[in-house]
Write a structure and sequence with these properties.
The chain is of the alpha/beta class. It is 32% helix and 25% strand. It has a 6-stranded mixed β-sheet, sandwiched between helices. Strands 6-7-5-8 form a 4-stranded antiparallel β-sheet, sandwiched between helices. Strands 12-11-14-15 form a 4-stranded antiparallel β-sheet. Strand 11 and strand 12 form a beta hairpin. Helix 8 packs across helix 9, helix 8 runs parallel beside helix 10 and helix 13 crosses helix 14. The longest helix has 17 residues. The protein is globular and about 55 Å long. About 4% of the residues have low confidence.
Length: 438
Amino acid sequence: LACALLSTPRLLLLDEPSAGVDPLSRRELWRMVHHLVGQGIGVVWSTAYLDEAERCAAVWLLNAGKLLYDGPPRQLTGRVEGRTFLVQGAGQNRRKVLAEALKRPEVLDGVIQGRSIRLVLQEKANPPDGAALGSDSVEVTAATPRFEDAFVDLLTRKDEGGRMKDEGENRLNPVHPSSFILHPSEEVVVQAHELTKQFGDFTAVDRISFRIGRGEIFGLLGPNGAGKSTTFKMMCGLLRPTSGLAHVAGHDLYRAAGTARARLGYMAQKFSLYGDLSVRQNLNFFAGVYGLIGGRRREAAARVTAVLGLGPYLDRNAGDLPPGYKQRLSLACAVMHEPAVLFLDEPTSGVDPLTRREFWLHINAMIERGVTVMVTTHFLDEAEYCDRIGLVYRGRLIAEGSPDDLKDRVHTDERSEPTLEDAFIALVSEDDKVREQP
């Protein structure tokens, strides 16, 4: 940004400047940009994060090379007024309730939002009741619309039978989990105990401990440089700790590394497969890495190809795939050996909202089959999918709980409906104040 401002431009073009940036830095970036606008500099900001689009004076919404909307974000958001609802009271059944909701013709979109499920309905549709969603315990209440709700409404349509219409290259394809539901259990599948990592005199991670149960999504959050990525790499076996223990699926990650790694799958933040190999060749290669041979290899490749819709791309070079299909292939290679634990390192960084939804529908389906997931992300709307979150700051775990628990911790009269981003920033600020005390 400093280099772009050396000549004091009249127009500043920012191409997804906040991708991979933590919420604290993102807010600071927005403060700087607003200051520039106040000085008379025009700014064009491209982003896949729609909470950022809400902060703009005007929005151009593009899809498949076409301009679908040009105007203030509030005007587009107003189109879904009265069509957004929260389903509350589903508890641990919320993923099953979401899957049932997405099957219904009147439901255009649905996402997990902490303990609740957020739904967007088609025009003139009535919200489904508990019986229609497979749970008599739930309550459906009206919710304030968001710009993202309107974005999805504009790009997705259902016909009278409830089938998705194709509105371009971005299309939401619901993936429904298996018929049985498995809740997070008391069985500990991933455990960190007093995990510490030092680089010379610098302590990057300081005695971090947590436990993750089977069938649970655990989010590891934190500002850039806080120790989150170092912790994640130690849990994946990519970095050896200075002290402490890490266990995956009952195996010590450093005393029985081969056995432990065979039980986990890993998806990197950046596309890290072989771009010059075809999709088929990548699948065969990674099947071999995980020890699948002969019929088992063919069966595994065929299974993930079918589930993730990779069939039309099997003979295409991986490096030439559209971004959403690169993501699908990365996930396919990470799960084809059916791991007990899946590590996701900022899996949807820079990905559009519809592809992000599709990705999490796949992950939710895996959770219902008992897979345990540990995920890092800077996109806090995505962190709402987690059952629990660990917030890392200055090398320590400063907060742990469900997304709604963390939001409840920072609730005040002035901040009556805090977002997860509000909670993130408030908890970090509180920790700074505690450490500054004599």
